[in-house]
Amino acid sequence: MFRQVFHELTVVTRGRGLYEFTGEVEHWIRKSDFRDGLVTLHLQHTSASLLVQENASPEVRRDFEKFFERLVPDGDPLFEHTLEGEDDMPAHVRTALTTVNLSIPVRHGKMALGTWQGLFLWEHRRHGHSRRVALHFIGE
Amino acid sequence: MFRQVFHELTVVTRGRGLYEFTGEVEHWIRKSDFRDGLVTLHLQHTSASLLVQENASPEVRRDFEKFFERLVPDGDPLFEHTLEGEDDMPAHVRTALTTVNLSIPVRHGKMALGTWQGLFLWEHRRHGHSRRVALHFIGE
Amino acid sequence: MFRQVFHELTVVTRGRGLYEFTGEVEHWIRKSDFRDGLVTLHLQHTSASLLVQENASPEVRRDFEKFFERLVPDGDPLFEHTLEGEDDMPAHVRTALTTVNLSIPVRHGKMALGTWQGLFLWEHRRHGHSRRVALHFIGE
User: Among A75, A107, A132, C41, which is most buried by a count of CB atoms within 10 Å?
Assistant: First the structure.
């Protein structure tokens, strides 16, 4: 019998960086006794992203930040929209260059992630925020 | 009872820039009386993108364009593929750096977008085009 | 009657570049007699991407590579994480800038791709790999 379930997760950030939340999604799947289906994650923000990446060592996380700091620097004189801070427009651009939206098959109660893949929330603002992820499962 | 419905939207562009079409998708959801499920949008083009972003003030939209004009400039001598115009290969690259594909949960008849999120079609060619978005809903 | 089916595809790469696999997905859809629904593709790797792009002429493919080689150069002194080779961290960044995750409506037994769209696996490591794509179909 097919069914669908909605849920919402909050990821609290402490400023820029990658925050893994694979465990929270797995916990919801286990607790809800989903066996086979499709889980969709939608991040409800315009200055943070969802990222599927290596359960990253600290230097991989630092390298991601350093790359984006060079590519989309804070305070870039290119940007007109600076009212909300010099990291605001760069945060929107970083979000546009990554994604806020993922759909992952679930089989035998587990997401079809690769061995090295984890789910991360990527905070692009300098200050911490409380970020909401809308979750949806459809399946058996 | 689960059901699924297909639809197609056309977004007419007048050259480069962001065109919001959140209202058109909401109208389809309301008209079709979808309550709970998953809506998927797939843009059927290789030189335009789908973007979830702030219901952007004019200067935010200009900043997005300016960033991409610097990152992937038209007429860049790097590119060999120039037959279809100097904005053609940059348009493909901009599309690859963003996305053409989104899936968003629908609950109580509304997409689970954040307060500041809207759905945009991002035209990457200099001239206007008629862009088709394939829509799919599965749910109740 | 709704049903869902899982599958796994392997795309063997011979180093950096775009490998089209639209035909393999179409073959699975035909063989399984799917008529209407949603197909989801999830690439189980952190140094390769999924890309929907023009059934690209060789020079378009070369231009994509050249753009990424300039944007995220191998051996960039910016990166600390170099243990697995000077193309490793650039491959993670290229993956983050594109995507590993797609959902495409299927109608009358065909994916709702545009006339010029094909599904590509984009290998970002210099050496060849065997890349796994998890597939899911839900529909009728």
Answer: C41
Q: Any chain C CB within 8 A of the CB of B7?
A: no
Query: For residue B1, what pLDDT is reported?
Result: 83
What residues pair up with B11 in beta bridges, in sequence order? B131
* Domain total of chain B: 1
Sheet with strand C3-12: strands edge to edge: C3-12, C130-139, C37-43, C101-107, C110-111
Whether the CA torsion C23, C37, A39, B9 is positive or negative: it is: positive
Q: What CATH number is attached to the domain comprising A90?
A: 2.60.120.460
Out of C2, C44, C97, the one facing A112 most closely (by C-beta) is: C44
Closest CA to C50 of C136, C124, C140: C124
SS3 sequence, A119-137? Answer: EEEEECCCCCCEEEEEEEE
pLDDT in tens, B84-108: 999 999 999 999 999 999 999 999 9
Inter-chain residue contact B59 with A81, CB threshold 8 Å: yes
| Cβ of residue C55 closer than 8 Å to a chain B Cβ | no
Distance from B124 to chain C by nearest Cα, in Å?
A: 14
Q: Does residue C22 contact residue C8 with C-beta atoms inside 8 Å?
A: no
| pLDDT tens, residue by residue, B19-49 | 999 999 999 999 999 999 999 999 999 999 9
Range of the domain at B86: 3-139
Q: What is this structure's pTM?
A: 0.97
